[in-house]
């Protein structure tokens, strides 16, 4: 024991002296530095930036590869075959079905026309029923909407409708939709026309003054229209008219066409009219206009077998390839030929405006006979 104490004392005496000759004792900060150095040496054993760490990494990698190659495949597969549960844990949920009974009655509509269930009205039925409006018959007064395909005011008494009931025609709308009344209106955009037999004398005078003009006889059904010589015209036929034929029409790829502009009148007093500009209906004759032959009506009359936009060569690329509508396809074609399509549409809108203003007094006079002016739209 005495020897050990002497050895410890000796080691303590070997500590360096300071300037005063006293022994230097280790401080707390020097101990922390010493411990930190030991930790760094241990960490460097796994540090790839050191030689020791790199050697260890290579050794472990080689050992792992050797182990995988030496272990049989079946044993390795069974070792790695960790099966997870195949069925998901689903909490038990109980659904309580509660029936909601609505006592609110749905609005009802009925269709007036010669064939109210025909295919030409299928889209009307589909839209109304999709909106939740139920169809009813015309033998009841409990209806909300009357959709009239034919002019209804001569066959149905609608002068005392309820305030909520609506009809898709205005009284007197035939002044606009009836071909005889429309075509014989004296406007700058409508070719001269004459009612038969009432205006037979005026027509003969006009034809004599314009011997180079061609004329067609038309009726409200838009059937059997053909260019006729004056001696072939039936002047005794009622509900028909004679109209001047425009023999130099605008053509697209040689095809004559007509257009349909979607227009709605929502009020007569005050007058309120809307023109839809999203698209316009174009129908083309199935046979090229030239060489002209008056006996072939498919060259100049648009019938049920008309040529659609996508089958007109210069329009098909715009309609099918680029997804244009009928109007945009027509405008693109016209622009490609160096013409401005806006000139046409300005004239079309002006024609609609002038026509409705011309018919407004007639519509207002008939509307005054009805109890409520808000029951109608066209």
Automatic annotation (TrEMBL):
InterPro entries listed in its UniProt record: TTL/TTLL_fam, Tubulin_polyglutamylase
Q: Name one Pfam family in it.
A: TTL
Question: Which protein is depicted?
Answer: Tubulin-tyrosine ligase
PROSITE patterns, alphabetized: TTL
Q: Where is this region: Disordered?
A: 1-33
Q: Where is the composition biased (Basic and acidic residues)?
A: 1-23
Instruction: Identify the taxonomic lineage of the organism of origin.
Output: Eukaryota, Metazoa, Ecdysozoa, Arthropoda, Hexapoda
Give the species this sequence originates from: Anopheles funestus (African malaria mosquito)
């Amino acid at each position: 024991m005495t020897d050990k104490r002497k050895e410890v004392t000796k080691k303590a005496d070997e500590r360096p002296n300071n300037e005063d000759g006293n022994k230097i004792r280790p401080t707390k900060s020097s101990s922390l530095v010493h411990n930190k150095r030991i930790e760094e040496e241990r960490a460097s054993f796994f540090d790839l930036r050191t030689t020791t760490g790199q050697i260890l990494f290579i050794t472990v990698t080689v050992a792992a590869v050797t182990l995988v190659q030496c272990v049989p495949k079946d044993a390795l597969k069974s070792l790695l075959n960790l099966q997870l549960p195949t069925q998901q844990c689903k909490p038990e949920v109980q659904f309580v079905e509660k029936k909601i009974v609505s006592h609110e009655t749905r609005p009802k509509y009925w269709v007036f026309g010669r064939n109210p269930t025909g295919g030409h009205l299928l889209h009307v039925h589909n839209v109304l029923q999709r909106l939740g409006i139920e169809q009813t018959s015309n033998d009841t007064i409990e209806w909300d909407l009357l959709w009239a395909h034919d002019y209804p005011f001569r066959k149905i008494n609608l002068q005392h409708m309820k305030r909520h009931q609506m009809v898709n025609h205005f009284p007197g709308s035939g002044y606009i939709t009836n071909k005889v009344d429309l075509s014989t209106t004296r406007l700058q955009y409508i070719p001269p026309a004459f009612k038969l037999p009432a205006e037979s004398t005026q027509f003969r005078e006009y034809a004599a003054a314009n011997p180079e003009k061609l004329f067609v006889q038309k009726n409200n059904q838009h059937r059997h229209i053909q260019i006729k010589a004056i001696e072939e015209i039936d002047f005794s036929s009622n509900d028909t008219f004679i109209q001047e034929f425009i023999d130099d029409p605008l053509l697209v790829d040689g095809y004559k066409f007509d257009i349909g502009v979607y227009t709605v009148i929502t009020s007569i007093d005050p007058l309120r009219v809307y023109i839809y500009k999203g698209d316009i209906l174009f129908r083309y004759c199935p046979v090229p206009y030239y060489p002209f032959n008056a006996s072939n009506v498919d060259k100049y009359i648009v019938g049920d077998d008309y040529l659609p936009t996508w089958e007109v060569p210069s329009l098909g690329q715009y309609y099918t390839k680029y997804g244009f509508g009928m109007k945009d396809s027509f405008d693109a074609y016209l622009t490609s030929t160096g013409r401005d399509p806006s000139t046409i549409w300005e004239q079309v809108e002006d024609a609609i405006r002038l026509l409705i203003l011309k018919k407004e007094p007639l519509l207002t006079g008939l509307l005054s006979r009805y109890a409520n002016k808000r029951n109608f739209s066209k």
